[in-house]
Amino acid sequence: MPTLQDPLTIVTDLDGSLLDHHTYGWEPAESWLARLQAQHIPLVICSSKTAAEIIPLQRALGISGAPFIAENGAVVRLDDTARPAPFLPGNKADYPVLCQRLAELRARHAFKFTGFADVSEKEVSEWTGLTEHDATLARMREASESIIWRDSAEQFALFRQQLEAQDLTLVQGGRFWHVMRQGSGKGAALRWLLQHSSLSDSATVTIGLGDGPNDAPMLDIVDYAVVIKGYSKNPVILQRQDKHNIYHTAHFGPEGWSEGLTYFITQ
């Protein structure tokens, strides 16, 4: 088991993991956050949230300027610039183009779904429990769209097929489906970040924490994986075979987050 003296990097999901699913608070994790900060252990956010949401959160957590992954891996930030996934050559699927493609598919096939681009901050606030100010930040998207699917399973299969034909893919999050460029995702983004940032030291030991199916690719490539008990109807299924390096928590949210770090890190 790693210790606080090892060259650790903590990679964390936000909603339902470090942040409470309902309140978005992180108070139960504060003691562990303080320990990590005291030992200068990097905390890398890997979330479905936008860069506009993550930057003020980093400030509140005392980790301003740290690299992060936003929009489920569709956006990566190494420094002060958040940009569409740099590990995808020729990535032109920025937000306006993506929304135009989705609108065309909806018109052509009569798909029933609603995205963030279709509604106001007030509706996003009602969907998520965010304040209208925070809902505004959630709508400041760069390379992915979050949607609520309201159609049949047959139509969904056709929708997925049509997206693939346009080099797009679907990722399931805790509340929404996320449409983004094929090849992006939390796992691909983290792999790129670990190779091209200040975290690229080969001796670094990574611990990942997440609660949803969209976290699985990220949890598959870290050294130690914490699967936090979540509210999703779909389980987090990992492909890795080293079961002794996977821990499933008994608690939700930041309580489970702290439980996972306590399990893996020898204090």
From TrEMBL:
EC number: 3.1.3.70
UniProt-recorded Gene Ontology molecular function terms: mannosyl-3-phosphoglycerate phosphatase activity
Signal peptide limits: none
Gene3D superfamilies: HAD superfamily/HAD-like (3.40.50.1000), Putative mannosyl-3-phosphoglycerate phosphatase, domain 2 (3.30.980.20)
Pfam family, one: Hydrolase_3
Record has Glycoprotein as a keyword: no
Keywords annotated in UniProt: Hydrolase, Magnesium, Metal-binding
Enzyme class: hydrolase
InterPro entries: HAD-like_sf (IPR036412), HAD-SF-IIB-MPGP (IPR006381), HAD-SF_hydro_IIB (IPR006379), HAD_sf (IPR023214)
UniProt protein name: Mannosyl-3-phosphoglycerate phosphatase-related protein
